[in-house]
Write a structure and sequence with these properties.
Layout (H helix, E strand, L loop, with lengths): L3 E2 L1 E4 L3 H12 L4 E5 L12 E2 L1 H9 L3 H5 L4 E9 L5 E12 L2 H15 L2 E4 L2 E8 L2 E8 L2 E7 L2 E3 L15 E3 L15 E10 L2 H6 L2 H4 L3 E7 L2 E7 L5 E8 L10 H9 L3 H7 L2 E3 L5 E4 L30 H20 L5 H31 L1 H13 L1 H10 L11
Parallel strand pairs: 1-10, 2-3, 2-11, 3-7, 5-14
Antiparallel strand pairs: 4-6, 5-6, 8-9, 9-10, 12-18, 13-16, 13-17, 13-18, 14-15, 15-16
């Protein structure tokens, strides 16, 4: 007799694992499927905003995350193209933790709750068969059909739908893969971990650079770069770059980051005391910032599958977690017979629009403003004359999810 799941979650990133845990916690027979194996590095700012921690707590995941010994981040500093700096205090304590550890921790938490985790499994098709979904999966040369009462898409920002889970999109290789049909002018997201060269180098660092409690953003021709401390004294360095502006000879993540670092004097000085950690590189190309949230495409979508927020807003993981929480609760009601699939689609779509549309809109505004060479020179002066304006812009890009403020 064919086993029928209550829910299958396609993708085991932050959103997918959180949704699978929520459903398993509520007693539903849940499968969590991902074509990769864990742990793995992913392109991400590796910054859990204060707002995200309320969601983590409600999902029973906050203590799991804290067990990873994340760094504490309380402020942000923006280093503009003209050399000016805008510094802001965060509304609470953010956490810096690598996706290498975080994704595996959430994945294992979903398993511990009772979800059936399947790693290294590629979904090749999803079809509706009466009251069930049929999910065709491939592991090596073996193909299997899984049946479920519901399916949730959590495959990230590669812009895929149904079973289109090819080899494009997010990669953990040193050289980013080009997605078929990508526009000639597109962005590439890259990231790598660094460590302090030596105790002597640490002593020589400036006071600002030596403090690990800030997320730092540097803007330059052709993109921007962010860095912040994560666990174990490591520093995550992630950048969004205009692919056409990077010399063709730079084929690796390390080379692309070196090129970016040379474009901002303060960043070059900041990175002088750091060494890259081999094996920590990741890239995604093309990196497309979403224009509007799309919470349903034949099935409910969560996380970056809904829409990719501009990275500089620093709230991507918060939105991923919140979408998982929202969708999981609607899925629970659907599985209990309290909602039809049409009601689920309508009510979940309205909830996503209500909570995400504003932050996404302001995120795109901030993305455009901070990328402007003219405003890059003017913003530090504006921030000094109207200090509330910059803080207000930051607040506008965040979910209205109460932050956990710790003394």
């Amino acid at each position: 007799m064919t086993k029928i799941y209550d829910a299958i979650v396609l993708g085991a990133g932050v959103a997918g694992s959180a949704a699978a845990k929520l459903l398993a916690d509520r007693g539903w027979h849940t499968a969590l499927v991902d074509r990769h194996r864990f742990p793995r590095h992913k392109v991400c700012g590796e910054f859990l905003s204060p707002e995200s921690q309320g969601t983590l707590a409600r999902l029973g995941l906050l203590e799991e995350v804290k067990s990873l010994s994340p760094s504490a981040i309380t402020r942000t500093s923006m280093h503009m193209r003209g050399g000016g700096v805008v510094s802001l205090a965060l509304p609470g304590k953010a956490l810096g933790v690598s996706r290498f550890l975080l994704d595996e921790k959430l994945h294992r938490a979903a398993e511990a709750a009772g979800a059936e985790a399947r790693e290294g499994v590629t979904v090749t098709a999803v079809t509706r068969q009466g009251e069930h979904y049929a999910v065709l999966v491939r592991a090596g040369d073996r193909t299997e059909e899984l049946l479920a009462r519901s399916v949730i898409g959590a495959w990230g920002g590669a812009g895929l739908s149904y079973g289109e889970r090819g080899e494009e999109g997010d990669t953990s290789n040193d050289a980013p893969k080009k997605r078929k049909g990508a526009p000639k002018s597109s962005s590439v997201g890259v990231k790598m971990h660094y460590r302090i060269r030596s105790p002597k180098a640490a002593e020589a660092m400036t006071e600002a650079a030596a403090r690990p409690d800030a997320v730092e953003l540097y803007f330059f021709r052709g993109g921007y770069l962010g860095l912040n401390a994560v666990e174990d004294g490591k520093v995550n360095v992630a950048a969004l770059l205009d692919r056409a502006d990077i010399p063709a000879k730079h084929r690796t993540v390390a080379a692309m980051l070196e090129e970016a670092i040379r474009r901002h004097p303060a960043l070059e000085a900041r990175m002088a005391g750091l060494l890259p950690i081999m094996g920590s590189a990741a890239a995604v190309s093309p990196f497309r910032v979403g224009l509007r949230p799309v919470p349903w495409n034949g099935m409910p979508l969560i996380g970056d599958a809904i829409c990719r927020i501009p990275p500089l807003c620093g709230d991507g993981m918060s939105m991923a977690l919140r979408s998982a929480e929202l969708c999981g609760k609607f899925a629970d009601r659907y599985l209990r017979g309290e909602l039809t699939v049409e009601q689920w689609e309508r009510e979940y779509g309205a909830a996503v629009a209500s909570e995400f549309a504003g932050p996404l809109r302001w995120g795109r505004v901030a993305h455009s403003l901070l990328a402007s060479p003219v405003l890059s020179y003017a913003l530090p002066l504006i921030a000094r004359l109207a200090p509330g304006a910059a803080s207000g812009m930051v607040r506008a890009t965040r979910l209205r999810n109460p932050a956990i403020v710790e003394s």
